[in-house]
Structure formats: structure tokens, C-alpha cells
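quick one before i forget lol
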Amino acid sequence: MKCLNTLLASLVLTFALAGAAIAGETVNINTADAATLDRVLLNIGPAKAQAIVDYRKAHGAFRSAEQLVGVKGVGLKTVEKNRDRISLGGAVAARPAAVARPQVAVAQPRPVARR
């Protein structure tokens, strides 16, 4: 009986550690390729992973995980399941070009002539 308890405890510990190791992997959704997204994210297959890459190319970097909802086939439930697996990696989001402001000439004071 003691041997069975030890074996059962070992199995539980092994599965707990294996699950933690798998869940510990994260993916940067702004730089990862489709194969990596498919491998790391839950409920994301090859087609959705490629759709994420295509969306990123068309719309620029993701600023939050919630923006994945804009990808066809990815919903809030999928984002929530993957929240701990998603990283943004500090990528700078694409911003619209700054509007050029006209340069205003500032009049410089004239030196005072001393006599």
C-alpha cells in the first residue's frame, strides 16, 4: 500500500511539473512566425497562426493581447486561455506618420550699439 501511495504521488508530481513547464512557454505575437504561434498557443492551429501573421503585417504590431480578436477566427475566450502565453515583447506599435509642422522664424533681438 505504501509503495502504491509513493508511486501515485510521484506520478502526480511528474504531471504537475510537466504541465508547469509547458505552460511556462510564452510567445511574442509581434515577432513570432506562424509555426511558433501554432505550437505555443492553445486553440490556434496553422491557419489561425498564419492569419495572425497576415493581420500583423497588414495592421502593424499588436499593442495588447485583446487586439488578437481582430483576427478572423480568434475570440476573447481564446485570448483569455492564452493570456499567460502571450507577450508583446516591448515592440513599438506602428504609428501614423507625424504631421509636419511649419517652422516659424523667431526674430532675434538686435544688438545694441554702444557709443
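fyi Helices lie at 2-23, 34-40, 46-59, 76-81.
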